Protein backbone atom coordinates (compact mmCIF):
# COMPACT_ATOMS: atom_id res chain seq x y z
CA UNK A 1 0.00 0.00 0.00
CA UNK A 2 1.28 3.43 -0.94
CA UNK A 3 1.88 6.26 1.53
CA UNK A 4 0.32 9.60 0.64
CA UNK A 5 1.34 13.03 1.92
CA UNK A 6 -2.13 14.59 1.64
CA UNK A 7 -5.76 13.54 1.56
CA UNK A 8 -6.23 15.13 -1.87
CA UNK A 9 -3.29 13.13 -3.26
CA UNK A 10 -4.82 9.88 -1.94
CA UNK A 11 -8.28 10.70 -3.31
CA UNK A 12 -6.86 11.54 -6.75
CA UNK A 13 -4.90 8.28 -6.92
CA UNK A 14 -7.87 6.20 -5.78
CA UNK A 15 -10.10 7.89 -8.37
CA UNK A 16 -7.62 6.90 -11.09
CA UNK A 17 -7.97 3.31 -9.87
CA UNK A 18 -11.76 3.34 -10.18
CA UNK A 19 -12.86 4.49 -6.72
CA UNK A 20 -14.99 7.25 -8.23
CA UNK A 21 -18.05 7.34 -5.96
CA UNK A 22 -18.39 9.05 -2.59
CA UNK A 23 -19.94 7.13 0.29
CA UNK A 24 -21.55 8.49 3.44
CA UNK A 25 -21.40 6.58 6.72
CA UNK A 26 -24.47 5.61 8.75
CA UNK A 27 -24.64 3.43 11.89
CA UNK A 28 -25.92 0.38 9.95
CA UNK A 29 -24.90 1.01 6.30
CA UNK A 30 -22.99 3.21 3.88
CA UNK A 31 -24.64 5.04 1.02
CA UNK A 32 -23.86 6.73 -2.25
CA UNK A 33 -26.55 9.40 -2.52
CA UNK A 34 -26.13 10.31 -6.24
CA UNK A 35 -26.52 6.64 -7.20
CA UNK A 36 -29.28 6.03 -4.63
CA UNK A 37 -27.32 3.02 -3.30
CA UNK A 38 -27.31 1.82 0.31
CA UNK A 39 -24.90 -0.96 1.20
CA UNK A 40 -25.20 -3.10 4.31
CA UNK A 41 -21.99 -4.49 5.86
CA UNK A 42 -22.26 -7.80 4.00
CA UNK A 43 -22.49 -5.97 0.66
CA UNK A 44 -19.14 -4.17 0.63
CA UNK A 45 -15.46 -4.77 1.23
CA UNK A 46 -12.75 -2.34 2.35
CA UNK A 47 -9.80 -2.75 -0.02
CA UNK A 48 -7.52 -0.10 1.46
CA UNK A 49 -7.39 2.28 4.44
CA UNK A 50 -5.34 5.47 4.71
CA UNK A 51 -5.04 7.48 7.93
CA UNK A 52 -3.95 11.10 8.11
CA UNK A 53 -2.89 12.76 11.34
CA UNK A 54 -3.41 16.46 11.94
CA UNK A 55 -0.05 18.22 12.17
CA UNK A 56 -1.01 20.43 15.10
CA UNK A 57 -4.54 19.41 16.06
CA UNK A 58 -5.69 15.81 16.64
CA UNK A 59 -9.18 16.92 15.56
CA UNK A 60 -7.77 17.27 12.03
CA UNK A 61 -7.17 13.51 11.77
CA UNK A 62 -9.01 11.70 8.98
CA UNK A 63 -9.33 8.27 7.44
CA UNK A 64 -10.06 7.25 3.84
CA UNK A 65 -11.62 3.87 3.08
CA UNK A 66 -11.38 2.51 -0.48
CA UNK A 67 -14.58 0.49 -0.86
CA UNK A 68 -15.65 -2.12 -3.38
CA UNK A 69 -19.18 -3.54 -3.37
CA UNK A 70 -20.72 -6.82 -4.44
CA UNK A 71 -22.67 -4.77 -7.00
CA UNK A 72 -19.55 -3.34 -8.66
CA UNK A 73 -19.85 0.11 -7.10
CA UNK A 74 -16.42 1.42 -6.08
CA UNK A 75 -15.76 4.54 -4.11
CA UNK A 76 -14.29 6.20 -1.07
CA UNK A 77 -15.53 6.97 2.38
CA UNK A 78 -13.77 9.93 3.99
CA UNK A 79 -14.31 10.32 7.69
CA UNK A 80 -12.88 12.31 10.55
CA UNK A 81 -10.96 9.66 12.45
CA UNK A 82 -13.08 8.16 15.19
CA UNK A 83 -15.92 10.68 14.90
CA UNK A 84 -18.68 8.09 14.58
CA UNK A 85 -16.98 5.20 16.35
CA UNK A 86 -19.42 5.21 19.27
CA UNK A 87 -22.54 5.29 17.10
CA UNK A 88 -21.64 2.50 14.65
CA UNK A 89 -22.96 -1.02 15.00
CA UNK A 90 -20.42 -3.72 15.82
CA UNK A 91 -20.93 -5.19 12.36
CA UNK A 92 -20.11 -1.86 10.71
CA UNK A 93 -16.98 -1.46 12.82
CA UNK A 94 -15.80 -4.94 11.77
CA UNK A 95 -16.51 -4.14 8.10
CA UNK A 96 -14.48 -0.93 8.16
CA UNK A 97 -11.23 -2.86 8.33
CA UNK A 98 -9.21 -4.51 5.61
CA UNK A 99 -10.08 -8.18 5.34
CA UNK A 100 -7.67 -9.79 2.92
CA UNK A 101 -9.46 -13.16 3.17
CA UNK A 102 -12.54 -11.98 1.29
CA UNK A 103 -12.78 -10.17 -2.00
CA UNK A 104 -15.79 -8.97 -4.01
Would you mind describing this structure in some detail?
This protein has 104 residues and is α+β, with helices and mostly antiparallel strands. It is 15% helix and 34% strand. The chain is built from two helices and six strands. It has a six-stranded mixed β-sheet, with helices on one face.
Question: Secondary-structure blueprint of this entry?
Answer:
Layout: H1 7-16, E1 21-25, E2 30-32, E3 37-39, E4 44-52, E5 62-69, E6 74-80, H2 90-95
Parallel strand pairs: 1-6
Antiparallel strand pairs: 1-2, 2-3, 4-5, 5-6
Indicate the mean pLDDT. 82
Low-confidence stretches: none
Backbone CA Rg: 13 Å
The topology string of helices and strands comes to HEEEEEEH
Largest sheet: 6 strands, mixed
**Shape category:** globular
Report how far the terminal alpha carbons are from each other. 19 Å
The count of helical stretches stands at 2
Strand order of the largest sheet: 3-2-1-6-5-4
Beta-strand percentage?
25-35%
Helix share of residues?
10-25%
Number of domains: 1
Question: Can you give me a brief rundown of this structure?
Answer:
The chain has 104 residues and is of the alpha+beta class.
What brief labels describe this structure?
104 residues; 6 strands; six-stranded mixed β-sheet; 2 helices; 34% strand; alpha+beta
